[in-house]
Amino acid sequence: MSQEPPSHTVINPTGRPEWVLICDHASRHVPARLANLGLDEAALHRHIAWDIGAGAVAERVAALIDAPLVMAGFSRLVIDANRPLDDPTSIATASDGVAIPGNAGLGAAEARARAEAYFWPYHRAIESLLAAIEARGAKPALLPIHSFTPIMQGFERPWQIGILWDRDRRLSDPLLAHFNANPSLTVGDNQPYSGASPASYSLKEHGERHGRPHASIEIRQDLIDTPAGVETWARLVADALRHIRPPGAPR
Q1: Do 130 and 20 meet the contact criterion of CB atoms below 8 Å apart?
Q2: How many structural domains are present in the chain?
Q3: In CATH, what number is assigned to the domain containing residue 74?
Q4: Quick one: pLDDT at residue 1?
Q5: C-alpha distances in Å from residue 170, one per residue of 9, 75, 245
Q6: Residue 5 to residues 14, 58, 74, 80, 103: CA-CA distances in angstroms?
Q7: What range defines the domain where residue 32 resides?
Q8: Is residue 232 part of a domain?
Q9: Which of 86, 105, 189, 234 is the most buried (most CB within 10 A)?
Q10: Bridge pairing between strands 98-99 and 94-95
């Protein structure tokens, strides 16, 4: 019997403390007991199941700047690591027009079981890492890395990269300025999503609630669905982070 992968992976926890990277939708894994949630393999390779390329970019950025990284090890269709548990999309019954049979009519006990097995261990790992860094006297900034589908509901999204924020602009402003200085890039300011909507659990829980600087990076999936694309965009992001000094970083 094959062993299930862990709910999360912590990479380079003793790396440089200025940036802590997380990747909420790094994996498309569905536990065997959930029988692919009634979906075929093709559906589980689509953007509805994970953020294509985001995990690979996050790992490469972490290596390039020697940053700690926490990655979720389960599909967003099992339970969405970036939604509050009381959000209707926490365990989605449909995504981008695709019905998720294994989530239909889900009982409260199964929802709690998924949260205890996947959601909470991942978020406890993030908070534990951040708290350990702060206990050493550092003040880390939180940077989730996501990706977005090029076409949504028939709309071709023009942005190559987006910076998401809500009320705290300490990171979003310098990130936007850095990427907008590159004339070859089309950059989204709270595009293709707003940092406030849909509700971003990770930014609010691990960033806003604790007063930590935070912003989220979104990269278009057709740009990072190959190893060459991952390398190109990881280097662009790593270069931005090298040039930006997060508030609270040592001088």
Answers
A1: yes
A2: 1
A3: 3.40.630.40
A4: 39
A5: 28, 31, 10
A6: 23, 18, 8, 17, 21
A7: 8-243
A8: yes
A9: 234
A10: antiparallel
